[in-house]
Amino acid sequence: MNDTFKSGFVALIGRPNAGKSTLLNQIIGEKIAIMSDKPQTTRNKIQGVYTTTDTQIVFIDTPGIHKPKHRLGDFMVRTAVQAFREVDLILFLVDITEKYGPGEEYILNKLTETSTPVFLVMNKIDQVHPDQLLERIDEYRRRFEFAEVVPVSALQGNNVETLLGQIGIYLEKGPQYYPADQITDHPERFIVSELIREKVLELTKDEVPHSIAVSIEQMKEREAGKVYISAVIIVERSSQKGIIIGKQGKMLKEIGRRARIDIEGLLGSGVFLELFVKVQKDWRNNQHQLNEHGYNKDEY
């Protein structure tokens, strides 16, 4: 490694649905964070690793910051705020099509407590007129002293290379934390569970709120190199179980079909995916069940 190699940790923060996971996937070039048009999709800190010949940026995609309504919500907000103190740079992602409101105010107040440089990343520039973009930038600049302001379209990839270049300027000389071909620090089982959860959110839309979790029971290689995966989709109510299974099991079958395509892309091999649905009443307020599903309050 050359002696000018730079590295650092960068947090992606913002309101739920600002486009943080979309931006992370765009930068990394593969889907490691699930995307949904429902807010609060990301529950854990997802680490994505971007490496070039002279730079390594470790991105932390935090849960959207919001007013929590249950223990899971508390965990998500604590996780996001904790990230402020662990990184070299913060990207505050804003959906330019949404008006400035109490949520943005809350985040900016939190940011005043840190000395870490903050970039304002105005997302979804492909959806507004340039004049509107300038007005929104001025609105935010009056409220906080940002190190840089970078407009992007996370979905289209517009200006993402410019953003990466600006981040590189702020990083200091440092080690290469991960191998050059590694794109995340999460185990495959975690990403597989997230891909299944994404398909449930995608297909059930407003019928099933964010009261689902996915637990991987088994994941092992079988004959002819195919990977066998057994997973349980956990819901809070019997009515939600019925929705996810669907008439004659059609919904569960479609969830499995779509998830299998993404999982095969991730693993690079054939997959046999078996899905089950289980009711755990009010699991989001049960600390024992939260721990079981990977939301451990003792870690933060």
Topology summary:
Elements: E1 6-14, H1 20-28, E2 46-51, E3 55-61, H2 71-84, E4 89-95, H3 102-111, E5 118-123, H4 130-141, E6 148-151, H5 160-170, E7 172-173, H6 188-204, E8 213-221, E9 227-235, H7 238-245, H8 250-267, E10 271-279, H9 287-292
Parallel strand pairs: 1-3, 1-4, 4-5, 5-6, 9-10
Antiparallel strand pairs: 1-7, 2-3, 8-9
Report what the structure shows.
The chain is of the alpha/beta class. It folds into two domains: 6-173, Rossmann fold, CATH 3.40.50.300; 188-299, 2-Layer Sandwich (GMP Synthetase, Chain A, domain 3). Helix content is 35%, strand content 23%. It has helices at 20-28, 71-84, 102-111, 130-141, 160-170, 188-204, 238-245, 250-267, 287-292, and strands spanning 6-14, 46-51, 55-61, 89-95, 118-123, 148-151, 172-173, 213-221, 227-235, 271-279. Strands 1, 2, 3, 4, 5, 6 and 7 form a seven-stranded mixed sheet that branches. It starts with 5 loop residues before the first strand and ends in an 8-residue tail after the last helix. Residues 36-43 and 295-300 have low confidence and may be disordered.
